[in-house]
Amino acid sequence: MVKIPTGTWILVADGTKARLFSNVGTATAPRLHQERLLEPVNLDDDGPAGRQPADADGYHLDEATFVKQLALAVNDAALNHRFEHLVLIADPQSLGQIRPLLHQEATRRTLLELPRTLTNSPLEDIERVLAAQAAG
Length: 136
Hints:
Blueprint: E1 9-13, E2 18-23, E3 32-38, H1 58-79, E4 86-90, H2 92-98, H3 104-109, E5 110-115, H4 123-135
Parallel strand pairs: 1-4, 4-5
Antiparallel strand pairs: 1-2, 2-3
């Protein structure tokens, strides 16, 4: 069972976009408010996250680069005390790529990581998944 305090940031991501929510509900009955929709920008300016196979195509390199951009944004927010708690929900590949890029301060603030693809899911479905985690 993981309580998700009011104000917790919930980042729901995959390699092509991310949705940032904050919990405006209670620790045991999360209710989400979408703060931002994040999409890849300037992918040619940054390299991809982690090691990539020599035969990786442009699509997979772009996904890895976007995940790196997300990690850098989360790190910056953690180091500048913009959030106290974080929940990461991402497809398994993206979660595996973002995890080693997180600064220890971001990792310390992470309450929960869920390897799920929920980026295109309705808000109610994401809330239901979080409520199930909070209920144990």
